[in-house]
Amino acid sequence: MGSRPERWLFLLELKEIYVDICNQKGWKLRSLLVRALEVIEEFFSREEPFILMLSLPTGYGKTTLTETLFKYAIKNGYFFSKVIHVLPMRSIVDDLARKLKAEFGEDQVAAQHMGLHESPFLAKPCVVTTLDTFILNFVKIPTVELRKAIARGISHHDFARGMIYSSLVVFDEFHLFSGLGSLREEMKSLEAAVASIVCLSTAGVPVVVATATLPTPMKNYLMEKAEEVVEVEEIRFGERLEDESFSRERKAKTISLRIEDKCLEEVLQAPNNTDKRILIILNTVSEAVNIYRKIKNHNVVLLHGKLPERRRKEVIKRILKDNPRIIVATQVVEAGVDISYDILITAPCPVDRLIQRAGRVARHKGDNEGEVIIVLKASKGPYDAEIVDMTVQKVKLLDNQSLNKLEFDKKMEEFLNQIYSKVYLEPTNEIYEVIMKLDEYVFLAAKDAIKAIEAFCGFTDSFGIVSAFPESKPLIEYAIGLSEREAKNALWKYRKVLTRGEIQILDEKNVRKLLRGGCLSLKLLRGGFEGIVIPDFDEELGFVGFNHGD
Description:
22 helices, single chain, 550 residues, Rossmann fold, globular
């Protein structure tokens, strides 16, 4: 009885930490983030498990929440001793980790994903990681031991899971875990994320789910699973809760939208575009590279998913430091990269992607006018044609109109829910159930998780990414990632693999054996291969051997 009052002496108010951060950096307080921190404090004071869902607009400053929570962990740490921040893509993991390292130091913060092992067992006080890496650690396969787990069925999974279960876990950009609108959507990532959230919260681990654009059916899936075991609190901008200061800022910004049935080159040549800063987002690497080649002498940078990792980091660093007048990119720029441009020129895409892309326009303070141009003659790339066409039809209602940014966001959210209420594909729950069992039963180990991974070809949509090395530079810093389908095409075409740094040419029999059924990425790991080998490519342009987006 006597220990209870003493414990509350260690409870530094989260809200106070957030206020201090904003005062030190000259930032405005965001009232819904203050409310979120108050909710977390309330749950802690009652010692109740919870899931906090944050549905806040792009540019609201959601990641400041992680900074606040981490400061609490290192100053106090009574209710959680670490923070794990989970994101969908490596590029935004690296960017957030870089920012947090600048604030707290490299000894406190780590980026952890398949291409980078700064905290192999998620042990550092603040770890920023990808969903696929987090899920593998959660299901008893630390990524640093993936090869050992496949070969011998063993791993030091208890340590990594202990780190997860002593953390507060933030699932950020949650809408991107579903891959909505993709031609090859399997909902694997969504099921895996929801299963881990339910397991964690059931055990009392505090969980925050943050998003800007969460379709109602997807939210309902999470709520349906989570509310069976734990209380879910939602803070949603504009739904009974509004930040008056932020709303005023949004209302002061004007977004104009127009739809052009022209090719992109014609749109770029418009006289009023000559001095404005332009963000071009296309759905395929080949289109992005072709446009870049034509305009590269005009202070332009190129960013897409088929650039080598080291080149991609250089490009993102240049974007954030030099503020180039034109960026040509694919969907990799949609989330996480904090940029603000005057004009967005975009290929047709699903409505949730369009919301993310439009969020890069008139984003920063003082940027009060933005324009969104949808170029219909650009490729739909990897996206479902029906969803893209439905998006275009909805957005045509706003063609040649100018709206304040608050009203624009509301209209886009309406379109989002109208479209996905008609085409949303319900998850099968197979992966959900498997992950729940792997977590619940202590006698299930790495060998059992590997069997399940083989059956599903991974628990996330990005699991099957295969490293592809240029022939003259077979080093990881020059490698790119290929999807399962792309890797199979490349292996059949070039028939080369990398083994212990040496290039090996396979005969047709062995190539067919690797390609026959099953998950190629797992077969390569079992065979001791580091990846496949592809022809050399221009590092500035990246690999343009396929036309599937990214």
